[in-house]
Amino acid sequence: MSQLSELLSSNYDKNVEELKELLRIPSISSLSEHKEDIQNAASWISNKLKSIGMEHVEIIQTQGHPIIYADWIHQENAPTVLVYGHYDVQPVDPVGLWETPPFEPTIRDEKIFARGATDDKGQMFLHIKAVETLMELDGKLPVNIKFCIEGEEEIGSPNLLHFLSENKEKLSCDVVIISDTDMWDKGVPAITCSLRGLCALEVSLKTANSDLHSGMFGGGVQNANHLLIQLLSTLHDANGKVNVDHFYDDVVELTEFEKEQIAALGFDEEKLKQSLGLTDLTGGEQNYPYRERISSRPTLEINGLWGGFQGEGTKTVIPNEAHAKITCRLVNNQNPEKIQELIVKHLEEYAPKGCSVKVSLGDAGNPLLIPIDSPMIQKAAEAYENVYGKSPVYKREGGSIPIVSDFSQSLNVPVVLMGFGLPGENLHAPNEHFHLENFDKGILTICSFLELVQK
After folding, report:
1. pLDDT score recorded for residue 402
2. Which of 83, 271, 367, 412 could bridge across to 197 with cysteines, CB 3.0–4.6 Å?
3. Three-class DSSP category at 238
4. CA dist 183 to 89, 190, 248, 437, Å?
């Protein structure tokens, strides 16, 4: 490790400058005007992979944005590690809140500020640099390596699942490693062992064939806004529990040991309330502690609600249409398609008289639970301890990364989520950044993991 550390120190300025090059490319996957930038980012990464000795480097075009593949398969009887990451980024709005331009990487306070700095260009780049450093030091790698880097993660990876199913042999491996999560705190590494799943729906309610004058028809015809509010109010009970029949049927309750693990992570309720400008934390199921509610319990949220006149001033109409967007976060053993069906059935059954209800289904992604005693997870834990000097905590993530479950199921291998971001690095928000203290340490940790996998 000392030789690796010395080599990284000598290459630090060069490595950071290369990261800046990648961060300057505005590879926003959701905006069509950046299609050329997406291609430029893919070309930059493929050229970099070639330069560090990767072979069979390809830019694979999809119906959307390209996937980059590369490998180095020269260690007989050694495990194969597949690295997944993404090079696309979120839009930068509101751009006026950025202290420096989002695609002009700037270093201040030992942090690098740019869109994609932590999600996920910065963290993905650590793996490229780890491979490059090992190759420079030894001329070879301790294990076989494959890279699969996509440009559509921020729009739901619409083409990656098809690529996985069509290329199982090409992507065959013994473990998938992903760095797209965060640590617990500064100097405190974490391994994410659980991700919630996701499903989305949009409900539209209609009454008359047009908006109506509230003076001529008020008090005599149904108001679509009123009816939709009435319908949505049936989705939860007074204690925050989801009131959809069979919603919780497949939920596996936490064991006492799992509850103790979550509680042991610690939680400063007053500090969180102050930071959020809240007076209480009473969302969700009130029979469960806050940290369990945000990581280990399913949810149903109304994300958007609109209908009738939205402009300035007053327009005295009775709206004939109202709409709502709904998403659910799901926990291990829940099936997103089944949950969508249950919600559709509920909305149809509880639809008030005098209206029609139409429900459209949106994205769906499976939850994932990774046993913390699996060999690959324990090797990751040892690698963190080798570099950071302390064992990682194991945390359940409330968010969703559906492609992680897809990798696990399609390739039938364990997935290790080794994050090097820190909480509060503003991913998806203005002034996104990455703490450079985790730059060399992240590379060293990945190097250590690859060496431990060999054993």
Report:
1. 80
2. 367
3. coil
4. 20, 5, 30, 12
Contact 298, 241 (CB under 8 A): no
DSSP letter, residue 251: P
Give the tens place of pLDDT for each residue, 297-325.
999 999 999 999 999 999 999 999 999 99
24 strand-pairing partners: none
Q: By the 8 A CB rule, do 118 and 179 touch?
A: no
Q: Half-sphere exposure of residue 230, counting CA atoms within 13 Å on the CB side?
A: 16
Omega cis (within 30) before 94: yes
DSSP designation for 253: P
Predicted TM-score of the model (pTM): 0.86
CA distance 350 to 59: 50
User: If residue 161 lies in a helix (H) or strand (E), which one and from where to where?
Assistant: helix 160-166
In angstroms, how far is the first alpha carbon of the chain from the final one?
16
Contact 296, 369 (CB under 8 A): no
Contact 264, 320 (CB under 8 A): no
Q: What percent of the chain has pLDDT over 90?
A: 91
Residue 447: predicted pLDDT: 98
Q: Are 211 and 320 in contact (CB under 8 A)?
A: yes
Closest alpha carbon to 154 in 23, 63, 29, 26: 29
What's the pLDDT tens digit per position in 93-123?
A: 999 999 999 999 999 999 999 999 999 999 9
Residue 101 CA to residue 92 CA, distance in Å, equals 9
Give the CA angle between residues 274, 277, 280 to the nearest 5°: 75
Is 338 in contact with 253 (CB distance < 8 Å)?
no
Distance CA 26, CA 35 (A): 10
Q: Say how far apart CA 419 and CA 124 lie, in whole Å.
A: 10
Cα separation values, 292 from 300, 323, 396, 398, Å = 15, 31, 9, 9
- Whether the upstream peptide bond of residue 120 has omega within 30° of 0, thus cis, is yes
Taking residue 266's Cβ as centre, other Cβ atoms within 10 Å add up to 10
Structure tokens that stand for 319 in this block: 């709206």
pLDDT digits (tens, 9 = 90+) for 165-217: 999 999 999 999 999 999 999 999 999 999 999 999 999 999 999 999 999 99
Burial 73-85 (b: 16+ CB within 10 A, else e): eeeeeebbbbbbb
pLDDT band at 265; cut points 50, 70, 90: confident
DSSP designation for 93: -
